[in-house]
Design brief:
The protein has about 180 residues and is of the alpha+beta class. Helix content is about 10%, strand content about 20%. It has one domain (about 5-170). It is built from two helices and eleven strands. The protein is globular, with a radius of gyration of 15 Å.
């Protein structure tokens, strides 16, 4: 790949993850990522869907399954369709702070039943937290979990990206985020 092509690819990846620096900025749409009805998708309640499957619709299925997989950052969490899962380092407790435009870019990992640990995930670290709209978000080791809306399956493009006032980091099977490069 030529140097110019590499610069374009890097710029596209960074711009794909770029957004405002403050997650608490008010937006006209409210918590748009959570407004989709669970009945608005065609999948059955036990199938896992990802943001790339449903636009910016949240992950809302009975008993969301969390698994581990390999990445350039080592073993990390994915949903069972291999959609990368992130945490937001600005959230120091299990209380979500990503709403509005933030939740549109970074849809919360939602569940309609108790989340389940798949291959490599630690069931004792899985939990849930209620979002402002009443939906249930999956947590891992006390961290609310998110997808990046513009990533495909098996893609991990937004680790260590500063956006909406904090860093977005992939989650290790042990619970902490993978190390930041900064």
């Amino acid at each position: 790949m030529s140097r110019a092509a590499a610069v374009v690819v890097i710029a596209l990846v960074l711009s794909a993850c770029a957004g405002p620096d403050d997650p608490d900025e008010p937006s006209a749409g409210g918590d748009r990522a959570s407004q989709a009805s669970p009945s608005s998708t065609a999948e059955s309640p036990t199938e896992a869907a990802s943001p790339s499957d449903a636009g910016t619709r949240p992950h809302r299925r009975a008993g969301t399954v969390v698994v581990t997989g390999e990445s350039a950052y080592g073993p990390m969490l994915f949903d069972r369709t291999m959609q990368a899962i992130y945490l937001f380092d600005k959230e120091r407790t299990s209380t979500p702070r990503c709403y509005g435009d933030c939740a549109e870019a970074w849809p919360p990992v939602l569940t309609a039943g108790p989340p389940r640990a798949g291959q490599g995930a630690d069931a004792s670290l899985l939990g849930t937290v209620r979002r402002r709209d009443g939906s249930t978000q999956v947590t891992y080791d006390g961290h609310p979990l998110y997808f990046y809306a513009h990533e495909g399956k098996n893609q991990v493009l937004c680790h260590d990206i500063r956006e909406y006032g904090g860093l977005w980091l992939v989650v290790t099977p042990e619970g902490p985020p993978a190390p930041s490069e900064s």
